[in-house]
Write a structure and sequence with these properties.
By secondary structure, this protein is mainly α. The chain is 59% helix and 6% strand. The protein is built from 10 helices and 5 strands, in the order H-E-H-H-H-H-E-E-E-E-H-H-H-H-H. A hairpin with a 2-residue loop joins strand 3 and strand 4. Helix 2 runs parallel beside helix 7, helix 3 runs antiparallel to helix 4 and helix 3 crosses helix 9. The radius of gyration is 20 Å and the shape is globular. The mean pLDDT is 91. InterPro entries: CotS-like.
């Protein structure tokens, strides 16, 4: 049984036709209902853990690993600016803001409790947790009693906490200004998760992903934008990352 058969047999319909173009512009964020829907789907998937589903990969641990790699690359980039003999105003800006971003990233990773993290991984593997990967209204919705998913390309074996984090990432990109901690607590409560999970999702959500990605784009393709445009891009990314949660 492949993933499509698995989902269809559990009453979940997959297809682009259920998500017509242009409909996403009309979405009004309803976090309570969307979180409840995410959890509803997760419970369906977790209730069928007797078999490994073919061609569904595991992404357990990969997010944290990627964060660690990103921070190392970012540190190396900032050091290259610091080592310049004649520094421009832009160089000084990158050093200042880059270190602020990197400090937040490192604080997030340093706050991660390794024992809690290991417990979550073990629980996830024992329960055969499956994440949809993308869980905003553009890929997951409910029409009447029917659950619809636009695509299965993001599905993987992973801790269910990551679907909460993935939802938060989408919210931030669309300018969500609500209480992220309240959202995390709501997800944990409805999912019957403990404080370890709350701490873990908070660590993920505090990591300044957009800012780090923008700095690394600068590292790889400096000529892509002017200095003024890079400053603007970094500011936009910092706004998306929002206030610190830790």
């Amino acid at each position: 049984m492949d993933i499509l058969e698995f989902l269809n047999s559990n009453g979940i319909i997959v297809g682009e036709e259920n998500f017509p173009k242009g409909s996403r512009k009309k979405y009004i964020w309803d976090t309570d209902n969307q979180i409840s829907l995410i959890i509803e789907v997760q419970k369906i998937l977790r209730g069928k853990k007797t078999n490994i589903i073919p061609r569904v990969e595991s992404s357990i641990g990969k997010e944290i690993e990627s964060f660690i790699v990103q921070t190392k690359k970012t540190l190396k980039m900032i050091r290259s600016f610091e080592e310049k003999y004649n520094k421009s105003d832009f160089d000084l800006f990158i050093i200042d803001e880059g270190n602020k971003i990197l400090n937040r990233a490192n604080k997030s990773l340093n706050t991660l409790d390794e024992d809690e993290y290991l417990k979550i991984i073990i629980r996830s593997m024992n329960d055969y947790d499956i994440c949809l990967g993308r869980v905003d209204e553009g890929n997951l919705k409910k029409e009447g009693l029917t659950i619809c998913i636009r695509t299965t390309r993001y599905i993987s074996y992973n801790m269910i906490e990551h679907d909460c984090y993935n939802y938060i990432k989408r919210l931030k990109k669309r300018g969500y200004e609500g209480d992220i901690i309240k959202l995390i607590n709501d997800f944990a409560y409805k999912s019957d998760l403990n404080k370890d999970s709350i701490d873990y999702i908070t660590v993920l959500s505090n990591y300044p992903l957009e800012s780090i990605k923008t700095l690394l784009k600068l590292k790889e393709d400096r000529e892509r934008f002017s200095d003024e445009e890079w400053i603007k891009e970094i500011g936009i990314a910092q706004k998306i990352d929002g206030i610190e949660l830790l």
